[in-house]
C-alpha cells in the first residue's frame, strides 16, 4: 500500500455530510500520521473544519462554478498524491481530475457520471448503510482501517466555549444548569415536524421542570422559530441567529439534550456527544440518523416512507411527521434525562 504524503478530501457540503466525513479524516490521519491532509469545502462550512483535529489545510470554495475553477491552478501546484471525492457528483469528480493527481478515489455508484473521473472506485454493497460507515469504506480502501469506533474529533476552541458561556449567561442560563436545545428547522420543508407539535413539547418540558428550553437556529430560521413561539404558552430562550456553524459544536456540547428534525445541528450534537431525540419523516435514520447508540429516533409507519423527497405526494400531507405524537417525544425526553442521571 503506498505511503501517501499529500492527501486532498473533497467534501464541500452539506453541514451534516461534512460532519459524517470527519471519522474518515480521523482514520486517514491515523494511517498517514506524517501526511499533509487538506479538505476542499464550501466556505460556509469551513468553520466546522477549523475545529476538526488532523487537518493541515482548508480550501474554502465560494458559491458558483467560478468559485471552484479559480482554485484549479493552486490545487495542481499542490501536487497531491491522493485525492478522495466523498461528494460523488459531476463537479466534485471533475475537480478531483483537474487537480492532476494520479490517484483519485470515489464511489462506484457516484452520481452524474462522477465515477468516470476516478482511477479507483469503491463499491457500496447496500444503500442502507450509514453515511459515516459508507465514507469510511473509502479510507479502508487505502489501508486506513480502524478497529475502534468511528471518531469525529470535533473540538471547540477555548474562545468558542467562552463565547457560548457568555451567550447562555446573557440568556439567563449559567454554566452547568441543565438546558434542552430545540431545533425546529431543516433544509427540506418535508423534514419539518409541525410547529404546534414542537410548541407542545417545549411547553411540557417547561411545565414538568425538565430543563430550560432554548430554540436554536440561523437567522434564516426565524420564520420557522416564530411559528413555534406563536403556539407556545411558555416563553423559551431564543438563540436564533446568535451562533453560526463555527459556534455550534461549543453550543451543542453544553446542552443537556437536543430535540430536532433531521438536520445539520443534529449531526453536530451527536459528534460532540450530546444525546439527541430526532424526528424523522421522509428520510432514513439507517442512512443519516444521529450516529451512536445513545440517541433516539422517532418516526411513523407510513407505507410511503422513506421517500427521500423534498415534495410530499401523500394526500395526507406530511403524514410521516404529523403522526409522531408530541406525547411520545416528551416521554423520550424524560427517559433520556433519566438515563443520563443513571449514568
Q: What's this, in brief?
A:
The chain is an alpha/beta fold. It is built from 15 helices and 12 strands.
Beta-strand residue fraction: 15-25%
What value does the Rg take, in angstroms? 21 Å
Helix and strand content put the structural class at alpha/beta
- Helix-strand topology string: EHHEHEHHEHEEHHEHEHEHEHEHEHH
Q: Could you describe the 3D structure shown?
A:
This protein is of the alpha/beta class and 343 residues long. The protein has 2 domains: 6-141, Rossmann fold, CATH 3.40.50.2000; 158-342, Rossmann fold, CATH 3.40.50. It has helices spanning 15-20, 22-31, 46-49, 65-69, 72-77, 90-98, 131-141, 158-170, 195-207, 222-231, 248-254, 264-272, 285-288, 319-322, 326-342, and strands at residues 6-10, 36-42, 57-61, 82-85, 104-107, 120-122, 179-183, 212-216, 237-238, 257-261, 276-279, 296-298. The strands form 2 sheets. A 6-stranded parallel beta sheet has the order 3-2-1-4-5-6, with helices on both faces. The chain has a 6-stranded parallel beta sheet with strand order 9-8-7-10-11-12, with helices on both faces. Helix 9 links the parallel strand 7 and strand 8 (212-216). Helix 2 (22-31) packs parallel to helix 7 (131-141) and helix 11 (248-254) packs across helix 12 (264-272). The longest helix has 17 residues, at 326-342. The chain starts with 5 loop residues before the first strand and ends with a helix.
Amino acid at each position: 500500500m503506498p505511503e501517501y504524503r499529500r492527501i486532498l478530501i473533497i467534501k464541500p457540503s452539506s453541514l451534516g455530510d461534512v460532519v459524517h466525513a470527519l471519522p474518515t479524516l480521523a482514520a486517514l490521519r491515523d494511517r498517514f500520521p506524517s501526511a499533509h491532509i487538506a479538505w476542499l469545502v464550501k466556505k460556509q462550512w469551513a468553520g466546522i473544519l477549523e475545529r476538526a483535529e488532523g487537518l493541515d489545510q482548508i480550501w474554502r470554495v465560494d458559491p458558483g462554478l467560478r468559485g471552484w475553477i479559480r482554485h484549479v491552478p493552486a490545487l495542481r501546484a499542490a501536487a497531491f498524491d491522493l485525492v478522495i471525492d466523498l461528494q460523488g457528483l459531476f463537479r466534485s469528480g471533475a475537480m478531483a481530475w483537474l487537480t492532476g493527481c494520479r490517484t483519485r478515489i470515489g464511489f462506484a455508484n457516484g452520481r452524474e457520471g462522477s465515477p468516470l473521473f476516478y482511477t479507483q472506485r469503491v463499491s457500496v454493497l447496500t444503500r442502507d448503510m450509514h453515511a459515516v460507515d459508507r465514507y469510511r469504506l473509502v479510507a479502508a480502501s487505502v489501508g486506513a482501517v480502524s478497529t475502534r469506533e468511528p471518531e469525529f474529533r470535533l473540538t471547540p476552541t477555548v474562545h468558542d466555549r467562552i463565547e457560548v458561556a457568555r451567550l447562555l449567561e446573557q440568556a439567563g442560563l449559567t454554566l452547568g444548569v441543565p438546558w434542552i436545545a430545540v431545533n425546529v428547522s431543516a433544509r427540506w420543508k418535508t423534514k419539518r415536524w409541525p410547529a404546534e407539535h414542537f410548541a407542545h413539547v417545549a411547553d411540557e418540558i417547561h411545565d414538568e421542570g425538565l430543563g430550560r428550553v432554548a430554540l436554536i437556529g440561523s437567522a434564516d430560521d426565524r420564520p420557522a422559530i416564530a411559528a413555534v413561539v406563536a403556539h407556545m404558552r411558555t416563553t423559551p430562550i431564543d438563540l436564533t441567529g446568535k451562533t453560526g456553524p463555527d459556534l455550534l459544536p461549543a453550543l451543542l456540547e453544553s446542552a443537556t439534550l437536543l430535540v430536532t428534525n433531521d438536520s445539520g445541528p443534529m449531526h453536530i450534537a451527536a459528534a460532540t456527544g450530546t444525546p439527541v431525540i430526532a424526528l424523522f419523516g421522509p428520510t432514513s435514520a439507517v442512512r443519516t440518523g444521529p450516529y451512536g447508540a445513545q440517541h433516539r429516533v422517532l418516526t411513523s409507519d407510513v407505507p410511503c416512507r422513506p421517500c427521500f423527497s423534498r415534495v410530499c405526494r401523500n394526500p395526507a400531507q406530511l403524514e410521516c411527521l404529523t403522526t409522531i405524537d408530541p406525547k411520545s417525544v416528551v416521554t423520550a425526553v424524560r427517559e433520556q434525562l433519566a438515563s443520563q442521571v443513571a449514568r
